[in-house]
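Structure, all two chains, one model.
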Amino acid sequence: MQQKIYDVVVIGSGAGGGTLSSRLATLGADVLVLEGGPHVNTRTDFNTHALPFEFPSRHIPTMRPGKPGFDGERSRGLGGKTMLWNAVALRFSQRDFKGRQHDDVGEDWPLDYADMAPYYDRVEREVGVCANYDHLEDLPDGVFLPPVPMKCTDIAIQKGAAKLGVKVIHVRKATLSRSRGVRPACHFCGNCMAGCDVVAKYNSYDVQMVPALKTGKLTLRGNSVVYELGVTDEARVSEVRYFDRETRAEGAVQGRVVVVACACAQSVALLLMSKSSQFPNGLANSSGQLGCNFIPHITAGFELFLDDFIGKPSENDEGFLDHAYIPSFVHDQKRDYARSFGIQFGYHNRRAAGWARSIQGMGKSYKEAIKARYPAYMTFSPYQEMLPNDDSYIDLDYEHPDEYGLPRARRHWKLSEMDMKLHNDMKRRCLDILEASGAQIHSISEEPSTNHEIGGCRMGSDPRSSILDATCRAHDVPNLYVVDASVFPSSSEKNPTLTIMALASRTADFIADRLQKKEV
Amino acid sequence: MASYSSDRRRVLKLFGAISATCTFPFAGEELYGQTAHEHANFVPQSQGRFLNDADFKTVARIADLIIPPTETPGAIQAGVPEYIDLVISRDENQQALLADGLRWLDVQAKEQSADRFLELDERSQLAILEPLCAAADAEKPHARTVQFFALLKRLTADGYYTSKIGLIDELGYKGNAVRTSYPECVHEH
């Protein structure tokens, strides 16, 4: 029997793979999604409402007893990281897409905000984003559900920041502030990143793929760890090779088009692992740029106590974690560095008080000091854009293979002098805002750290300096696409997921068009 | 624990009430809603105690001096010694640090003509521990005795404030609840 050839084989089922595969199935393409992790039942499998004292070690496992998933990079589960994300959904602006034009360094995207706007509209309508219409040029408004009120502690920061001319806005999240179809509105239990069991928070599986399954055009295959893409003499992906995560049985599938959406570093790793005589340094890597230009978000962290709330009665202010955001405000100011930062704050929940160990003293006064500070505790984390440099890249570690015997993706990053200038100014400005808000600083991160993996497989108009074209198609391999944050030529300081989704939706349209015109 | 379970049942009832009273147009099998956690996660401590009786008692005493009973129970009643025992059982470096520290405490006790730290009165026990606490609070502890105290303070704080007594009775945690909307702030700022 001849093996079925799918129109599109998608590897990965998160924000990128979920958005793209559901869109293509809805447009009538025959789509297979391969996900390395198991099928996770959102309603029953996560420890969403567990509390630490239910466990002797006080550590709350992600999954409920006996439920597999999310125990490693190759075995997250259907829905990928959207199952456990914090749902912050920000549009990039024209400045973000054209950083080089704005600051004269870094790299521009091969597209403009105007190209992306309709796709942002589409995904916002599809998944539901609650936000306020703020009319900011640098953080474009979209199609919004009503915002959720700020927390009392947010208003203290808002008043403090206002003294410095800094604006605090409502957070923008892909979480429902009112019910939509089968999804209820958020019930503010404060456990968003423990898996939202009612799907008030967007995840790609329940929100996009489950409805798309009704078309009969979408096939999901979990526990299928893809380790290699085979390539023909004509530089086309011929076959997607995988093994079953549990039985290790090997298999291969074919698609007219193959889309890699394994989340930044894993997508880069899969292409690097796919070596052939034509592409000895990794698939679609004639430029030698695969893995280069790794530009994760760089963060700092503050813990603080707000004076106004010390000693106040404890209230339930869990909400859906952070309810406010400080958008970039330095990008139009005179400064001695390029790019900018935004600030997320108050995204902790009160299920833990890890800071208690570093309050001074012991005995009754120690206990009282912790109780008094508990309602006043807040986290504060600015996120900055970093510029690409030669010391920041993803490669493969063959020396220390993972449990499946596959090389691990290894991340290297180093901040340039310019990045450090931004980092230090960012921390200073955070301290200014906190001081103006009446905050006692409890801790400050000493070293920069990373979050939101971005870059490594960037899009661009020049095949010598990029892997993909403006439609996310590989310059070298005409039936290969990548849709996740690895494709971003610059990171912005804004959270990447909504842009991953908009790009994936846009790429889905290009693929559907090419399939229809029989160009693939 | 028993009262928490009944709280949990109340929470689940509330979920039930919401899905019954809120009007979802597509109510039925497809509706995403809270699923009852019939069997809660309480995992029984499967292993026996790691520390010997004497050491366990001393650790428990120190934990209760760090977080004493006040209007709310202290570390011992909150099960902190059992938590410390579990954590220590998994880390050889911590075991060595604890053993050295406990031995040192008994040496201190002997200088005050007691056989063991546990036999000292509270004031004498605090006179030994409080300087260690002050040293542990003052940046990175280098002396091994200070590291020993820092370890016990860290584990006591972690264990107490993740216990039901610490988190709910003492701190007043009220989250993990179901609300139909998030309230506007009514405080004066």
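DSSP finds ten helices and 17 strands in chain A.
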